[in-house]
Amino acid sequence: QFDNSDKKKLKDYSQFPTELIDRTFLRNQENLDKLVRSNFDFQQSVELDYLCTPTFYVESFGHRIIERVLETWQKNIQYLNQHGNDKPLFATMVISENAFSDYDYISEFLEDLESFSVELTGVYFTVDRNEMSSLRHKFDVTHLTNILQFIYDLKMMGFSVIVGYTSVEGLLYSSVGADYVGTGWFYSLRKFNRVQKGLPPEKAFGIQKKRYTSIKVFSEVPLQETVYNVGSRSHPIILDECFLDRELISETPIDILNSNDCYLQHFEEMHKHIQLIDSLPDETEKTNKVLELLEEAGTNIQRFNNLPNNTYSINSDHIKQYSDAIKLVKEANFI
To answer: How far is CA 257 from the centre of its chain?
Structure first.
């Protein structure tokens, strides 16, 4: 869909579309048939157990491309039925965060999607975030509320739900029904990369800092500022019983600290808390647990920011944004 996107090695595969997927392309039924056929030919060549539809970028649920998306999904189902393929099928999308500004269009989309509830196993979507500031956890409350409602509605319709490229907000997604959340590769793919997809950049960044993901403060914090500069006083507030903690407690120099260990710490922390959320019996207890974690995080952030001689503050704006969004979904759905 984006002519200037960085296709990298995708262009080496015969199944990858060579034409721009625009309105002209999508109006041609032969193009849609070829897109579906090539998509499944590749997936079958690598013997996948779960199949995905071609992925479309959705700028708004009110745009006419939604009609073509649904039509393509129908063609996917027909193609699999014709070839006797009964592997689970996931509908896939990359959705602009702005698409979650108004739930009326989303409701109309869900009504259309209901007719696929038997043939489709689930929905796999990624949110193209608007906010590219250093406060990557920041969320517009309306957008986040509607994302959570979207996940909840999909789950209530019987779909499995996977959300890609998430960070600590993945706990919120899990609490309202997401079966799986993906992290991407830490520091880069965890947030959908606009430039690689041919979209205009919003801001540029320098070298990424080594970070520690702590649900104790519901944040990914820079290690230098929050642990090394502050010292042992920060340990009970930030560190959360991860493998990396031993090196931090023993004051291994940050330059020697292996970046891969920081990546793995992120996965370890998220996996631990996703398992906690998944162990609870229903959305009521899951959302209550996330609200409890957020309240504790708010307290811990305040404790850290008030440490004597501490010159770095952890921003806590997202704590209220996350809490407000969950409470709105709980209220709207009697959770």
So the answer is: 27
Instruction: Write the burial class of residue 255 (CB in 10 Å: 0-12 exposed, 13-18 middle, 19+ buried).
Output: exposed
- φ, ψ at 161 (rounded to 5°): -125, 125
Query: What long-range pairs does 71-76 form, CB within 8 A, spacing at least 24?
Result: 71/32, 72/32, 72/35, 72/36, 73/116, 73/120, 74/116, 75/32, 75/33, 75/36, 76/36, 76/39, 76/40
Residue 311, amino acid: T
CA 81 to chain centre: 31
Contact 190, 268 (CB under 8 A): no
Q: In the chain, what's the furthest Cα-to-Cα distance? A: 69
Nearest to 35 by CA among 74, 89, 87: 74
CA distance 97 to 95: 6
SS3 of the chain: the string is: CCCCCCCHHHHHCCCCCCCCCCHHHHHCHHHHHHHHHHHHHHHHHCCCCCEECCCEEECCCCCCHHHHHHHHHHHHHHHHHHCCCCCCEEEEEEEEHHHHCCHHHHHHHHHHHHHHCCCCCEEEEEEECCCCCCCCCCCCHHHHHHHHHHHHHHHHCCCEEEEECCCCCHHHHHHCCCCEECCCCCCCCCCCCCCCCCCCCCCCCCCCCCEEEECCCCEEEEHHHHHHCCHHHHHHHHCCCCCCHHHHHCCCCCCCCCHHHHHHHHHHHHHHHHHHHHCCCCHHHHHHHHHHHHHHHHHHHHHHHCCCCCCCCCCCHHHHHHHHHHHHHHHHHCC
β partners of residue 194: none
For residue range 67-112, list pLDDT tens digits in order.
Answer: 988 999 999 999 999 998 999 999 999 999 999 999 999 999 999 9
1-29 pLDDT tens trace: 656 666 667 667 666 766 667 677 777 78
Dihedral sign, Cα of residue 70, residue 71, residue 75, residue 78: positive
